[in-house]
């Protein structure tokens, strides 16, 4: 982004949706919160911290004497697991369901808060018996089963930091993460159910553990009952060791800054970064944002976040935020199309889900599958819809609102990162007049803005880099074992500001629109064009369900826009006129500068396990290079499919 410092602002969106009157009248958080936080930001967070139960109440809110190393609520002490479980039982809610588990094969299990307390206590004793102590690290490699939540809370309860690794990553990835964190114990399972069949997990752990020295025990949950290799003395069945433990366990209070977990993000280069989160500030912000942004009413709502536990969204909005708030939630093990493409909506109907939190990649997939599928189910229980993970294209937003939200549910598009720990920019469902495709404004107590190359704030209507200008309670504290990398990665591009890596623009009202990673921005004839805007223009064409665009080296324009599109169920791939039509559609929506040079219909796009499109790989394809690292792809055969289509793909101009 050097030739022209600001990002072009091409897309105009005029649609507006007021909050539902009833929701606004009873909303957990009103517009006053913005005023209150603006007048006294630290006082505001101190008040939110009081939503938690502290063994020692903090007197100091923020210590920012050694930036960028923050300490929040430093003299307070608490136990995170106690806050997520025990205190609800003590308050008389032991019979409330904490987790409605729905297995992929159709088995289900309801776990009350009282039962969760017993299970977490037993698991905590079991970890202690295996030699895990306060300050140790435990790696977790599990499918989406309740034991994943129990394992995380058991670690928190005894003051050990967990490091959850996606149950789909390779032995290499597990080994690298175990090594970096020096984990003593790994918690895994025999396998899990995915796409209608049991898939094994333990073999990858066995291989990883054989390459590292730190692991003393592997604790194995029995899920599928498939055969497993067994190392005597090292491997321990979860059900055998937990069965003999007491359900009484006294939680110890730890410092607010005691490490809670490490979660690795892949990053574009080099070794994965171990993002470190601590206890008091993290739990304060995850609990507050879950209460505010979803308007959670724990007595009546049924909440469902479809994320995997191996993603930060699973940490903050399945385990910690919802449980700290005493929510009843659904947890689903499998994929949205097993055994049929209506599985999600069947689950919404079965449990009467009121709040649904999912990702744009899922929404675009549902669009592709067709409107008739959700239409077969009763979705009338829904009242708030959330989105996270990528910019949501306005057309996908509209589809979500109409086909899932019956044109009445507010949509909260939540921008945040593994590093931020909790939501940072999002509408409030009882306050904000929403705009399709915009995350809108920083939440109360959060300071975000958009700056140009020289760190000057851009005016309304301008585009540039998204930065956070004040520390926040759930911020990462460092990169595990590498303070210098923490400083270099996040705090050196702009002085005293956290740079998130994302491009963004402000509209005429000052609302924020995320424009994708700045590494992906395309430079076409001297204009910085965001991938998001071109993709959104393509998705606004009735034939397109999903699009990914990249800039490929071009002799005349510097870079040329290459678009990969997935067509909707009804569109015909062989339709000769369609490609020209799509190019013209983008030209008329955004202007001629944004017209893709090539449009390639494909069946699938390369995505990470959390559903983000990997444009880097598409750039390799578009520039006829050998593919870079594909290990974090959900399905590596996707790239072969795309490459095989290339020679035949029509090229324009
Ligand atoms: C929570 C999560 C972080 C990156 C982030 C941005 C993208 C997430 C978004 C969004 C636009 C949203 N992102 N939410 N972009 N609108 N609502 O996804 O964490 O996996 O660390 O990814 O995801 O690019 O920088 P993580």
UniProtKB/TrEMBL annotation:
Residues 31-84 form the Acetyl-coenzyme A synthetase N-terminal domain. Acetylated. Deacetylation by the SIR2-homolog deacetylase activates the enzyme. It is an enzyme of class 6 (ligase). The lineage of its organism: Bacteria, Bacillati, Actinomycetota, Actinomycetes, Kitasatosporales. Catalyzes the conversion of acetate into acetyl-CoA (AcCoA), an essential intermediate at the junction of anabolic and catabolic pathways. AcsA undergoes a two-step reaction. In the first half reaction, AcsA combines acetate with ATP to form acetyl-adenylate (AcAMP) intermediate. In the second half reaction, it can then transfer the acetyl group from AcAMP to the sulfhydryl group of CoA, forming the product AcCoA. The modification N6-acetyllysine is found at residue 612. Its EC number is 6.2.1.1. CoA binds at residues 194-197, 313, 525. Residues 533-612 form the AMP-binding enzyme C-terminal domain. This is Acetyl-coenzyme A synthetase. GO terms for cellular component: cytosol.
């Amino acid at each position: 982004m050097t030739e022209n410092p600001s990002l072009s602002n091409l897309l105009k969106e005029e649609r507006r949706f007021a909050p539902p009157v009833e929701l606004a009248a009873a909303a957990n958080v009103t517009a006053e919160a913005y005023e209150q936080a603006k007048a006294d930001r630290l006082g505001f967070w101190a008040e939110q911290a009081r939503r938690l139960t502290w063994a020692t109440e903090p007197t100091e809110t923020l210590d920012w004497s050694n930036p960028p190393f923050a300490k929040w609520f430093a003299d307070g002490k608490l136990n995170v697991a106690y806050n997520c479980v025990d205190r609800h039982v003590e308050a008389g809610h032991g019979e409330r369901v904490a987790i409605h588990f729905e297995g992929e094969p159709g088995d289900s299990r309801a776990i009350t808060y009282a039962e969760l307390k017993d299970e977490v206590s037993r698991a905590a004793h079991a970890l202690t018996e295996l030699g895990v102590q306060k300050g140790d690290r435990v790696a977790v490699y599990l499918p989406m089963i309740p034991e994943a939540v129990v394992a995380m809370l058991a670690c928190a309860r005894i003051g050990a930091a967990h490091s959850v690794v996606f149950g789909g990553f390779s032995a290499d990835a597990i080994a690298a993460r175990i090594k970096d964190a020096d984990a003593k114990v790994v918690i895994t399972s025999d396998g899990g159910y995915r796409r209608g069949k049991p898939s094994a997990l333990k073999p990858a752990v066995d291989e990883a553990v054989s390459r590292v020295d730190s692991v003393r025990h592997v604790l194995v949950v029995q899920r599928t009952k498939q055969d497993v290799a067994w190392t005597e003395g090292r491997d321990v069945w979860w059900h055998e060791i937990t069965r003999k433990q007491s359900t009484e366990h006294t939680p110890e209070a730890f410092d607010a800054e005691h490490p809670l977990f490490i979660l690795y993000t892949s990053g574009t280069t080099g070794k994965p970064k171990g993002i470190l989160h601590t206890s008091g500030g993290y739990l304060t912000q995850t609990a507050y944002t879950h209460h505010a942004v979803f308007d959670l009413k724990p007595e009546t709502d049924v909440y469902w976040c479809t994320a995997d536990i191996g993603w930060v969204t699973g940490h903050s909005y399945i385990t910690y935020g919802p449980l700290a708030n005493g929510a009843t939630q659904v947890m689903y093990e499998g994929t949205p199309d097993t055994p049929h493409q209506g599985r999600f909506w069947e689950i919404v109907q079965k449990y009467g889900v009121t709040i649904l939190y999912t990702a744009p990649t899922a929404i675009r997939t549902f669009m592709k599958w067709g409107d008739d599928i959700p239409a077969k189910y009763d979705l009338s229980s829904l009242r708030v819809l959330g989105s996270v993970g990528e910019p949501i294209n306005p057309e996908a937003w509209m589809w979500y609102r109409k086909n899932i939200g019956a044109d009445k549910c507010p949509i909260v598009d939540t921008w945040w990162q593994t590093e931020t720990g909790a939501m940072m920019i999002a509408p409030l469902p009882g306050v904000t007049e929403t705009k399709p495709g915009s995350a809108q404004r920083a939440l109360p107590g959060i300071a975000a803005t958009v700056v140009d190359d020289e760190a000057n704030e851009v005016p309304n209507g301008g585009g540039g880099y998204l930065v956070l200008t004040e520390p926040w309670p759930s911020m990462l504290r460092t990169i595990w074992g590498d303070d210098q990398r923490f400083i270099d990665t996040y705090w050196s591009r702009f002085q005293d500001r956290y740079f998130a890596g994302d491009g963004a623009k402000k509209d005429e009202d000052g609302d924020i629109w995320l424009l994708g990673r700045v590494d992906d921005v395309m430079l076409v004839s001297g204009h910085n064009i965001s991938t998001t805007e071109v993709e959104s223009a393509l998705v606004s064409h009735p034939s397109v369900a999903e699009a990914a665009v990249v800039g490929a080296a071009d002799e005349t324009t510097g870079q040329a826009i290459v678009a990969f599109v997935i067509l909707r169920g009804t569109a015909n791939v062989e339709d000769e006129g369609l490609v020209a039509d799509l190019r013209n559609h983008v030209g008329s929506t955004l202007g001629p500068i944004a017209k893709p040079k090539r449009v390639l219909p494909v069946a699938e796009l390369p995505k990470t396990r959390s559903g983000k499109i990997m444009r880097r790989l598409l750039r390799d394809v578009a520039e006829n290079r050998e593919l870079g690292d594909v290990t974090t792809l959900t399905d590596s055969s996707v790239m072969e499919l795309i490459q095989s289509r290339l020679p035949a793909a029509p090229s324009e101009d």
